[in-house]
Design brief:
elongated, 3 helices, twelve-stranded antiparallel sheet
């Protein structure tokens, strides 16, 4: 059901932006206009997990008394996805390929809009050092795969000769994940659909992209870029981990992904 919902939203959003952009041209002609590119990136994923536990009367820097139920405490754990886990895990680095519509200059100032798609992999774990302070939560790990869609507006300065082009992109994010989450060594398969709120765009929540284009050649370009994907609205309580375990329940999560690097858009195909 979750997959059907996110697929429908992607089709609606993609269709709206594509038909607005190409007017009478067909969707096939638009998609056929994408060029191949190569990028080199570094990225990190931050995950904020909250859950409820029974109130023990003992103070905790990670938990506070639940305002709605004095017998419960609401606890927070911050993880950073990547090859490690905990608060100091490494950034992921690597090379990849992408598809992008060639840029069409409008003059000194530029304004446009489009929709982007991306594949996501989330993997992380609570470190042993951090687990010492989060009892009865002794272990927490996740490995999830998903897709993100982000319709955006783009604006900036594109001078003909004086300095490089500078572009800013901003818009909401819709993402769907599926994979495995393990709490205290007990794994569960979960599916999550999550989106940022349009009302939060002014606080830079959602998709924010910065791009400095150093060289354009035909339909190709070489540029430096930084993208951030922040989904602040929580998934339904219990969606991140649906079971009650060791007095803990109602696991929820928010996600933030940051990517920066360089990319080369080719003149092909």
């Amino acid at each position: 059901m979750a997959v059907k919902i996110i697929t429908r939203w992607m089709v609606v959003i993609c269709g709206t932006f594509i038909f607005s952009e190409v007017s009478s041209a067909s969707v096939f002609d638009y998609l056929n206009g994408y060029n191949l590119g190569i990028d080199s990136i570094s990225s990190s994923d931050n995950v904020h997990v909250t859950y409820e536990r029974d109130y023990s009367g003992a103070p905790s820097k990670n938990c506070s008394v639940n305002a709605d139920d004095q017998t419960k405490m609401t606890c927070n754990v911050y993880l950073q996805g990547g090859r490690g886990g905990g608060f100091l895990s490494e950034y992921l680095k690597g090379y990849g390929v992408f598809l992008q519509q060639p840029f069409k200059r409008q003059g000194l100032y530029y304004f446009g809009y489009d929709v982007g798609f991306g594949l996501r992999v989330l993997k992380g774990a609570l470190s042993e050092r951090d687990a010492e302070e989060t009892a009865p939560l002794t272990s927490l790990s996740f490995q999830m795969y998903g897709v993100a869609a982000y319709p955006y507006i783009q604006f900036g300065i594109t001078p003909a000769q004086t300095w490089p082009d500078f572009l800013i992109s901003i818009g909401p994010v819709i993402q769907a994940f599926m994979g495995q989450v393990s709490v205290n060594e007990r794994p569960e398969t979960v599916a999550i659909v999550q989106g940022s709120k349009l009302a939060n765009l002014l606080s830079l929540q959602g998709f924010l992209g910065l791009e400095l284009v150093l060289w354009r050649f035909g339909e190709g370009a070489f540029s430096l870029f930084s993208n951030r994907y922040l989904v602040s609205s929580r998934v339904e309580k219990g969606a991140f981990y649906p079971k009650e375990i060791d007095g803990m329940s109602h696991f929820s999560a928010t996600f933030q992904n940051s990517v920066y690097g360089m990319k080369l858009l080719l003149n092909w195909p």
